[in-house]
Design brief:
By secondary structure, the protein is mainly β. 0% of the residues lie in helices and 32% in strands. This is Alkylphosphonate utilization protein.
């Protein structure tokens, strides 16, 4: 016999645990196992550079390490200034356009805010 609570959105009795969360397989709703409040999925993500400064869309950053470009013999050199960055989701959390190279994604751990 299941002791898990019913889904607060659709009242389905078929909920299951996924780590610290409870999940409803019928409507896809997720909420904390503590049961206090639904977990917000729209939390603002904070992206920091190599020295801990918070990055925002439109910032200018400097590359702190030579970066080889996958599939090319080009290299982004140390000290390359990148203007007007855009924060993105995923492994490479900065989308940008670098003069002489073009559009690419960078990891925030390899840049420093100017």
């Amino acid at each position: 016999m299941s002791t898990l609570p019913a889904c607060p959105q659709c009242q389905s009795a078929y909920t299951y645990e996924d780590g610290a969360m409870l999940v409803c397989p019928e409507c896809g709703h997720e909420w904390s196992a503590a049961g206090a409040e639904p977990v917000a999925t729209d939390e603002a993500r904070v992206v920091r550079d190599a020295v801990g400064n918070v990055l925002q869309d439109g910032d200018t950053v400097t590359v702190i390490k030579d970066l080889k470009i996958k599939g090319s013999s080009s290299v982004v050199k140390v000290g390359t200034k990148v203007k007007n960055i855009r924060l993105a989701e995923g492994d490479h959390d900065i989308d940008c356009k670098i003069d002489g190279i073009g559009a690419m994604g960078l990891k925030s751990e390899f840049v420093k805010k100017v």
